[in-house]
Write a structure and sequence with these properties.
The chain is an alpha/beta fold. The protein is 18% helix and 32% strand.
């Protein structure tokens, strides 16, 4: 018998014992299509959906719903939180969080109560106070975020300049506009706004609007010549389809 087969059979037998232990303890499963390391702790009443992998010193609190298709590694998920189709490493997620789908929670992420990290959000080495909303398509790294902040789509903390990592600090009740670049080190004050499409490289005081945009201009007729060949090609294809 090959060592690979022996290892697999040993792991399968160990998992069967772990799975049975959690079933007897009141953890709810819809399928045994999961993997749970022996040292993982899961509170009674938590739901583990198919496709989940729970590794290392992961702890899942009461009333949590994990999955489907979620990886937790050395991560604490406090009571009442959901983690859907996401990957979390070496982090601590507070109570009543909503994580996912498709969220990448990287090492050193700590969240307070009621935080939402949504679709295609990535976090790393950052602290989020209670009530933060980061709905989609955002990167927050090396940051300290106050309570009840809202992040618009496409926000990026620019934390690395090729040599060093720098932190971003965001106060309570701040609103970060869509497609804002926060160039660390930088501080956004309490109740401050950043205008959509801004690259913020200087501190924004409490209650202020941070805005950095070039003046919009229109050059008449510029695109007519630029797109002349492209439009002709598409019109030709359209005419050929109509004839066919």
């Amino acid at each position: 018998m090959s060592s690979a087969k022996e290892n697999y059979q040993a792991a399968k037998a160990a998992f069967a014992k772990t799975f049975e232990k959690h079933l007897e303890n009141g953890v709810e499963f819809l399928s045994d299509n999961v993997w749970i390391d022996p040292e993982v702790e899961i509170a009674p009443g938590a739901v583990i959906l198919p496709g989940c992998i729970l590794r290392g010193k992961t702890v899942v609190g009461a009333g949590c719903v994990i999955g489907p298709n979620t990886l937790l590694e050395n991560t604490v998920v406090e009571a009442g939180s959901t983690v859907n189709a996401s990957q979390c490493y070496d982090s601590h997620l507070g109570p009543d969080n909503k994580i996912g789908p498709f969220t990448h929670v990287r090492t050193g992420t700590v969240t307070g109560a009621g935080v939402h990290l949504g679709a295609y959000v990535e976090t790393k080495n950052s602290n989020f106070a209670e009530g933060n909303t980061v709905s989609h398509l955002t990167y927050i790294g090396d940051s300290d975020v106050g309570k009840y902040c809202n992040f618009g789509c496409g926000t990026v903390t620019c934390n690395y300049d090729g040599e060093g990592k720098y932190r971003t600090t965001i106060g309570d009740y701040a609103f970060i506009g869509c497609n804002t670049n926060l160039v660390a080190p930088v501080k956004i004050g309490d109740r401050a706004f950043t205008a959509a499409g801004s690259t913020i490289s200087k501190d924004v005081p409490d209650g202020a609007l941070g805005i950095e945009r070039g003046k919009q201009a229109a050059i008449p007729g510029w695109s007519d010549k630029k797109l002349e060949k492209y439009v002709a090609k598409k019109e030709k294809l359209e005419a050929e389809r109509k004839k066919g």
